[in-house]
């Protein structure tokens, strides 16, 4: 195991503890930022070690599940601390995650892969079913609350919340079962012969366990550093005169860095199937894990919860899913498709800054 793969998380934990003890000054903010990126790179390395041991598509599921679980814990902790002011946090975070993944991550992977390999292919069967599940989960979670009449616009009553939580969790569990057991071949590349990892010996069980533990440690410290840096991010957003919702976008982008880095590396290595597995699996997990936990907390602790999106966000979400259906419907990617997704991602960022 390379020395930097355990040193980077260790230094990141040291920076996090120093920030918690002494507070975040200018120098420590810079140090925390550098440590965060080091932990991200280490997390991707350890995720790849685990993935090589367990094989696809379980390997991509490990990283997606770990990141989403920690992101959910972060959202819940901020809701408990913030009270009524955090009623829209789950909505904003899930919406940002879906837009970042479906446009930013997918678009970047397709462009990087297209520039290097001209065209790349993936299995339509897995990508199509995953996208269909994501569309239904997003519609139930973020769109329908705008149109229901039992409560004020944008909210659900308790039975509706319970129904959405149950259906979201069920669809996620079914997707994981299909991805890993029932139709595992739908998420495997048609030909892996060109990949050097195909012929590389898998790591030992001990190496995989150590990498898994270091992966969790790296992801936890990434979320911790993101939370520590959030006041500095908020200050920068205020100085720029941008809306406060931009803070949630920045934090979501930081939390999704490990998956983005891993997906882009896979696309560059002509493994676009792995990139699609990461993207779709992460987006589904961001709803299927987050919503049930948030709903249980909101019902049990009587926390306010607003899920419905504004009209501008509804339009962008609809266009994103329409374009994604076209992109994922052919099983082949090239630069033009990626450019379209990146333009949508740029529109999402621009309209967040200039609503």
Architecture, according to CATH?
Up-down Bundle
Counting H and I runs of at least 4 residues, what is the number of helices?
13
Strand order, biggest sheet? 1-2
CATH topology: A middle domain of Talin 1
Tally the structural domains: 1
Beta-strand portion reads under 5%
What pattern of helices and strands is seen along the backbone?
A: HHHHEHHHHHHHHEH
Radius of gyration: 20 Å
Describe the structure.
This protein is an all-alpha fold and 355 residues long. The protein has a single domain (4-353), classed as A middle domain of Talin 1 (Up-down Bundle), CATH 1.20.1420.30. Helix content is 77%, strand content 1%. It has helices at residues 4-22, 26-54, 58-82, 89-117, 124-143, 158-182, 205-240, 245-255, 257-268, 272-288, 290-301, 311-328, 335-353, and strands spanning 120-121, 332-333. The protein is globular and about 55 Å long. 46% of the residues are buried. The model is unreliable at 193-199 (pLDDT under 50). It is found in: Membrane. Residues 26-180, 211-353 form the Sodium/calcium exchanger membrane region domain.
Write the layout of secondary structure elements.
Layout: H1 4-22, H2 26-54, H3 58-82, H4 89-117, E1 120-121, H5 124-143, H6 158-182, H7 205-240, H8 245-255, H9 257-268, H10 272-288, H11 290-301, H12 311-328, E2 332-333, H13 335-353
Antiparallel strand pairs: 1-2
Helix pairs in contact: 1-2, 1-7, 2-3, 2-7, 2-9, 3-7, 3-10, 3-11, 4-8, 4-9, 4-10, 4-12, 4-13, 5-6, 5-10, 5-12, 6-10, 6-11, 7-8, 9-10, 12-13
